[in-house]
């Protein structure tokens, strides 16, 4: 298992190297043997960070862009990825399935809370512990007990050590994992630009980091537009210059970049509006970029290897609501639902019928659509 | 940010002019260059360039924080400010979280200002935190404050905590920046003799901006670019204050009709009619967005006298339904909340 993993990594990294074209007029960079070794030293693989989201794993050097409207799960998804990346592969004989990697998180939206990340990690780990407990008792329905538990003896003795002790160990585990988490908060545009452009000093120092997350790259868009440039063209040039250098660092040090991009524009076509109102679900399927276009400049657009679009899966939410109220789906009924009394409104959310979010993943080869719900332990795919 | 002579010893007049001829005149364009290439192009010593770069990174780049240290700091210092309304606290998972921006949006007259005054006064008088109430409309009057104070405490008792409740009325968005900048400056100009000693209670813990559209709509009416640029700057300033000083920020926003916007249909499945004002960029900014709407209950009148206060006829309780539209930590839910209004 281990050796085959390794095989895949080496192939993938050479692929990523082939895709990267060197900047045009560049004097060939000299590099000492020591720094070359340091650079090429394998960082932890992110393979299996989320096997539903990316079955072939993000390869080192990939750039994944998460875009979507406000409140459709981008930041929650980032938390989920961070937690999976930080957690260990095996712990106390249980297969946790993390990547044991370090994470650099560039926060421009300030929607991040370290307590939330800790919580997600603890919940993830304790969920798996619970599963392995029932697997030990033979209650496991699927035959994946072998995968879940790698060392029966240590799991048994750990589970018997009492809930207080387990809790303490979980806290210790998350604390240990968070040591590899590096947080950079940028509150103005210059700080953000300089931080991105100086990532080449941080990456060689942190050898276990294989995931860089930016939430979000468009936080200073309008500021840059009105204070740094006097035209669309100049703004794009400004971004192109920054991202050309930044992406070359990402490729050079072979880390995976995940960045969220807010959708700030909508298409101003009247026909689209009309279609959308008539049949919102169909529109979702046909629209390649109905609500959005690449406004971060061509260097960024070119660099992105996986485009992930987030949206609400409204049909599913309504489906659940309607089942409860036993009303056919019409606009008037939806409106009357809103005006309903408090008791009904709150009852809609008391059970496990959470909002269903939808992601649309497009990379070079394929395009997939997945649904997920947000839980305390991160996100859960609906299969 | 311009490169200036004296930023570091290596950056002399001579080096500056050489850099200028090489097309480097600000911090960002310097950072974009590969030092080795630049050293050859502009014939400046590699060592000097390296030291200039180090200084720039130290001055302008974000400081890397380690996760486990952040966690212990957060555990030590995170404050959750109760709103004083149990149903709202429950909806918000305990109350207002310091470091977050919460937006209250709703139509006219649903009680946004009443709710803000109520929670700000609760924070100042009951919890003893300093509150900065930014009130460009001049909506906070003694009439507004009175019912809450009578309700909670005796006047003599409230005299001191009321000094924790500070109201400022900026005229325009520049006034807002001034207020926020003096707040974010390391030394706040002392307002009284007691604030010279830095006690725990001296830090402002809650900032209320009621309401933001009053300040921002005038600048948005002009060119889209500049309007949004200013909105972006307001967002940055508020986020900076919230995260760096661990302050809870409450922002009041209006709603606009969403029927003509194609994008909104799938966005807010509960309320298809409305969306938050101030444009698409702002929609992403708050950590949590709450939507308020009046509840018109057929069996109860919407305004009913508070049973506990029999003599005061001016006091009314107002039932509103509050829905979470967007949040980075809470799941979408809604709850009925009664607020005191007059």
What does this structure look like?
The complex is a heterodimer of chains A (383) and B (342). Chain A is α/β, with parallel strands linked by helices and 383 residues long. Chain A has a domain at 58-311: Rossmann fold. Chain A contains 17 helices and 11 strands. In chain A, the strands form 2 sheets. A 9-stranded mixed β-sheet of chain A has the order 5-4-6-7-1-8-9-10-11. In chain A, a hairpin with a 2-residue loop joins strand 2 and strand 3 (94-95). In chain A, helix 3 (74-86) packs across helix 4, helix 4 (114-136) crosses helix 6 and helix 4 crosses helix 7. Chain B starts with 12 loop residues before the first helix and ends with a strand. Chain B has 2 domains: 13-60; 69-341, 3-Layer(aba) Sandwich (Rossmann fold). Helices cover 40% and strands 20% of the residues of chain B. Mean pLDDT of chain B is 79; it is low at 192-201, 260-271 and 301-314. At the A-B interface, helix 4, helix 7, strand 5, helix 8 and helix 10 of A face helix 2, helix 3, helix 4, strand 1 and helix 5 of B. Chain A: This is RecA family profile 1 domain-containing protein. Chain A: Residues 38-263 form the RecA family profile domain. Chain A: GO terms for molecular function: ATP binding; ATP-dependent DNA damage sensor activity; four-way junction DNA binding.
């Amino acid at each position: 298992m281990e050796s085959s993993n390794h095989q895949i990594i080496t192939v993938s990294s050479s692929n990523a190297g082939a895709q990267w074209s060197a900047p045009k007029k560049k004097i060939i960079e000299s590099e000492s043997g020591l720094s070359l070794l340091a650079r090429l030293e394998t960082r932890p693989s992110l393979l299996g960070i989320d096997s539903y989201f990316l079955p072939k794993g993000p390869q080192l050097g990939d750039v994944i862009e998460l875009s979507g409207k406000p409140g459709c799960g981008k930041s929650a998804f980032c938390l989920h990825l961070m937690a999976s990346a930080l957690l260990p592969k095996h712990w106390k004989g249980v297969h946790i399935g993390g990547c044991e990697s370090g994470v650099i998180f560039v926060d421009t939206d300030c929607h991040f809370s370290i307590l939330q990340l800790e919580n997600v990690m603890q919940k993830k780990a304790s969920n798996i512990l619970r599963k392995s407990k029932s697997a030990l008792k033979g209650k496991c329905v699927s035959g994946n007990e072998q995968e879940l538990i790698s060392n029966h003896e240590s799991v048994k003795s750990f589970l018997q050590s009492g809930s207080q002790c387990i809790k303490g160990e979980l806290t210790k585990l998350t604390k240990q994992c968070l040591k590899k988490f590096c947080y950079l908060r940028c509150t103005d545009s210059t700080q953000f630009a300089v931080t991105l452009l100086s990532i080449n000093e941080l990456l060689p120092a942190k050898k276990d980091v294989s995931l860089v997350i930016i939430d979000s790259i468009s936080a200073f868009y309008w500021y840059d537009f009105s204070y740094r440039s006097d035209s669309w063209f100049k703004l794009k040039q400004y971004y192109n210059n920054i991202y050309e250098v930044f992406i070359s660092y990402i490729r050079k040090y072979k880390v995976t970049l995940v960045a969220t991009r807010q959708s700030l524009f909508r298409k101003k076509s009247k026909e689209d509006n009309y279609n959308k109102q008539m049949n919102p679900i169909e529109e979702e399927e046909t629209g390649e970029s109905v609500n959005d276009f690449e406004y971060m400049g061509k260097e960024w657009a070119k660099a992105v290897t996986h485009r992930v679009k987030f949206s609400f899966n409204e049909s599913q939410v309504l489906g659940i609501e309607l089942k409860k109220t036993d009303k056919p789906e019409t606009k008037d009924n939806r409106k009357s639902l809103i005006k309903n009394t408090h008791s009904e409104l709150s009852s809609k959310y008391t059970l496990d019928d959470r909002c269903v979010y939808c992601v649309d993943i497009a990379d070079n080869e394929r395009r997939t659509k997945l649904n997920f719900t947000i839980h305390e332990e991160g996100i859960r795919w609906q299969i | 940010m311009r490169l200036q002579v004296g930023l570091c010893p290596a950056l002399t007049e001579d080096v500056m002019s050489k850099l200028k001829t090489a097309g480097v005149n600000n911090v960002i364009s310097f950072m974009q260059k590969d030092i080795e290439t630049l050293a050859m192009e502009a014939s400046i010593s590699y060592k000097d360039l390296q030291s200039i770069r180090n200084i720039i990174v130290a001055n302008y780049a974000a400081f890397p924080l380690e996760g486990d240290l952040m966690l212990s700091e957060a555990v030590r210092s995170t404050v959750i400010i109760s709103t004083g309304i149990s149903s709202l606290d429950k909806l918000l998972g305990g109350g207002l979280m310091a470091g977050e921006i919460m937006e209250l949006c709703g139509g006219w007259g649903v009680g946004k200002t009443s709710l803000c005054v109520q929670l700000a006064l609760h924070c100042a008088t009951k919890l003893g935190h300093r509150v900065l109430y930014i009130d460009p409309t001049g909506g906070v009057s003694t009439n507004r404050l009175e019912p809450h104070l009578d309700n909670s405490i005796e006047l003599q008792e409230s005299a001191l905590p009321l000094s924790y409740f500070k109201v400022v009325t900026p005229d325009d968005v520049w006034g807002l920046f001034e207020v926020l900048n003096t707040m974010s400056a390391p030394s706040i100009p002392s307002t009284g003799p007691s604030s010279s000693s830095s006690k725990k209670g001296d830090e402002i813990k809650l900032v209320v901006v009621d309401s933001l559209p009053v300040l921002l709509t005038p600048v948005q009416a002009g060119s889209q670019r500049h309007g949004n640029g200013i909105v972006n700057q307001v967002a940055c300033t508020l986020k900076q204050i919230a995260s760096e000083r661990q302050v809870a920020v409450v922002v009041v926003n209006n709603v606009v009709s969403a029927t003509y916007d194609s994008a909104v249909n799938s966005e807010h499945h509960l309320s298809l009619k409305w969306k938050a004002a101030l444009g698409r960029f702002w929609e992403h900014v708050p950590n949590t967005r709450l939507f308020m709407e009046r509840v018109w209950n057929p069996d109860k009148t919407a305004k009913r006298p508070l049973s506990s206060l029999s003599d005061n006829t001016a006091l009314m309780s107002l039932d509103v339904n509050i829905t979470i539209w967007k949040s980075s930590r809470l799941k979408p839910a809604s709850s009925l909340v009664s607020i005191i209004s007059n």
